[in-house]
Amino acid sequence: MKRRSITSYDVARAAGVSQSAVSRAFSPGASIADATRKKVLRAAQELGYQPNAIARSMSTARKDDHQKSGMVGVIVTRLEDPFFAHTIAHFSRNLQAQGWHMLLFTVDSQAQVDDALNALMQYQIDGVIILSALLSNHMTKVCRSKGIPVMLYNRSAAESGVSSVVIDNREGGRLAADLLREAGHDRIAFVGADTEDETSRERRAGFEERLRADGLSPVQVETGDYTFVSGREAGLRLFARSERPDAVFCASDVMALGVLHAVRFELGLRVPQDLSLIGFDDIPSAAWPGHLLTTIRQPIRRMIREAVDMLVERMENSEAEAKITRFPGSLILRDTVRRIDTGQTKNET
């Protein structure tokens, strides 16, 4: 037979206090005598009682419109992508350090973001972070009406009242083009996502802008979906043609590693002797000895700290204004781009 759960009423009886006193004992900052708190905590420990944080936060949030639940909703697409898994871990640590808890929802596409936010609102969230996706105009207005601040991470929105922290994707594309041109490449291919993806579109735009300044354009463009498999398949397609590129810029490290696998282990090409390859993000595996991928680094620690600080400010102060902060990427030189004798040193900082 399943054992009955211990409730706050059981603790109240054991401690000889009211149930509301038990609730206050487990609520940071609540008004309760120190002796009473100690009596409640001792009884709870003896009974093996653990409060239901979600139920308690929903209850207190309903009682007072200004009462915080302590929860932040996070919506993410492509959680299987190592970059996003790494990013979520940093968000969780930064939120916890400031006393907030993360409630994570994953979605498969942009179309599911509104539904995920509707579900999150049932938990009385105090704010929401959306990674690499956008809210509809309707849900933006709903959040504004409910006083729920929104933080877009790596997406920017024109709507007022929505904060965002983004990487300068266009400038990152320009950095990649500059490096490959300086290395003497003129048959350069691009591997990105479909044209609806803002991140890939912006990286490609900056890349092509710089190539056009030299009278060039990508010799080939292939499409993937930010996975290793799609990068591998794109690499095989690129080098199945008669006019092979001599360099490839990928919109993400994960796809770049797929291309690297295809050309090295299936086509027998040497990198960087036969072609140069550059990615974007600087995920941890980009620096592994078997990869040593040259890439554009996103300063995710600084970006996430800024995103959390901005969101917490708005959750704690309803008068705080939404802001947009843009961070520059940095070129990380490793071993997949052909060296040029310019005295340029390797950057692994």
Sum this structure up briefly.
It comes from Ruegeria marina. It contains twelve helices and twelve strands.
Q: Care to describe what's here?
A:
- This protein is of the alpha/beta class.
- It folds into three domains: 44 residues, 434 Repressor (Amino-terminal Domain); 125 residues, Rossmann fold (3-Layer(aba) Sandwich); 130 residues, Response regulator (Rossmann fold, 3-Layer(aba) Sandwich).
- Helix content is 42%, strand content 17%.
- The chain is built from twelve helices and twelve strands.
- The strands form two sheets. It has a six-stranded parallel sheet, with helices on both faces. The chain has a six-stranded mixed sheet with strand order 7-6-8-9-10-12, with helices on both faces.
- Helix 1 packs across helix 2 and helix 8 packs across helix 9.
- The longest helix has 17 residues.
- About 3% of the residues have low confidence.
- Pfam families: LacI (PF00356), Peripla_BP_3 (PF13377).
- It comes from Ruegeria marina.
- InterPro entries: HTH_LacI, LacI/GalR-like_sensor, Lambda_DNA-bd_dom_sf, Peripla_BP_I.
- This is Transcriptional regulator, LacI family.
- GO terms for molecular function: DNA-binding transcription factor activity; transcription cis-regulatory region binding.
